[in-house]
Amino acid sequence: DVKVTQSSRYLVKRTGEKVFLECVQDMDHENMFWYRQDPGLGLRLIYFSYDVKMKEKGDIPEGYSVSREKKERFSLILESASTNQTSMYLCASSRPADSNTEAFFGQGTRLTVV
Amino acid sequence: AQSVSQHNHHVILSEAASLELGCNYSYGGTVNLFWYVQYPGQHLQLLLKYFSGDPLVKGIKGFEAEFIKSKFSFNLRKPSVQWSDTAEYFCAVIRYGNNRLAFGKGNQVVVIP
Questions:
Q1: SS3 letters for chain B?
Q2: Most-buried pick from A41, A51, A107, B31 (CB within 10 A)?
Q3: What are the Cα distances from residue B75, in Å, to A56, B17, B57?
Q4: Residue A111's pLDDT is what?
Q5: First and final CA of chain B: distance in angstroms?
Q6: What is the band of B80 on the pLDDT scale with cuts at 50, 70, 90?
Q7: Mind listing the pLDDT tens digit for each residue in A64-73?
Q8: pLDDT at A6 over 70
Q9: Is A56 on the interface with B (CB under 8 A)?
């Protein structure tokens, strides 16, 4: 059974803290994605990676960075957490688009910044 | 920038009514198209997908979608909804050579028994 695992289901952090969200996939997928999901705004792409050490900005990268040192792991970093980063964060992985396969999602991490 | 549009964010309908959700995307080239569903409290699940071939695709739970290339659309339909179809539905598009998987804002569908 394919699996995308996010390290935490729930996190509470203080304003100004550095926050790490971890995502691991066991499908040897090239692509990995980080989204945030907010009511009425759908899934907004923060960053994605199409290979180890490669990354591209999504639609809302400000305040975030990412790391992909190994193919199976994609980390999202909030350099200095702020209350407007309170959200549900979703990780996904997929093969390249021309492989004609779908993306698989983790369970999500609900982050609250206080 | 590529974008995916879904209209009518909130949809309320009665059981046995027909459902149609629109999805339009804004860029050319070869694309793969998806509808995902998120039931209350659960993670995203794939409902159906289009890669190539017959533009009318069938998914799980009686859903189907039609790809109309000339209209850049991939609309989702179900002839007769059930209370258990209450969920949020997301359209997603990924373009060959780009690999950016973009989502629409979603449709919150509530089915009244």
A1: CCCEECCCCEEEEECCCCEEECCEECCCCCEEEEEEEECCCCCCEEEEEECCCCCEEECHHHCEEEEEHHHCEEEEEECCCCHHHCEEEEEEEEECCCCCEEECCCEEEEEEC
A2: B31
A3: 29, 17, 10
A4: 98
A5: 41
A6: very high
A7: 999 999 999 9
A8: yes
A9: yes
Q: How many CB atoms lie within 10 A of CB B1?
A: 7
User: Dihedral, CA atoms, B47, B105, B83, B33, nearest 10 degrees?
Assistant: -20
pLDDT tens-place string over residues A19-59:
999 999 999 999 999 999 998 899 999 999 999 999 999 99
> Are B101 and A48 in contact (CB < 8 Å)?
yes
Q: Which of residues 8-67 of B touch A (CB under 8 A)?
A: 9, 30-32, 34, 36, 43-44, 46, 49, 51-52
Nearest to B96 among A33, A90, A98 (CB): A98
How many A×B Cβ pairs under 8 Å?
62
- CB atoms under 10 Å from CB of B80, counted, come to 11
Q: What tens digit of pLDDT does each residue of A65-111 get?
A: 999 999 999 999 999 999 999 999 999 999 988 888 899 999 999 99
Q: Specify whether the CB–CB gap between B107 and B8 falls below 8 A.
A: yes
The amino acid at residue A37 is: Q
Higher pLDDT, B8 or B72: B72
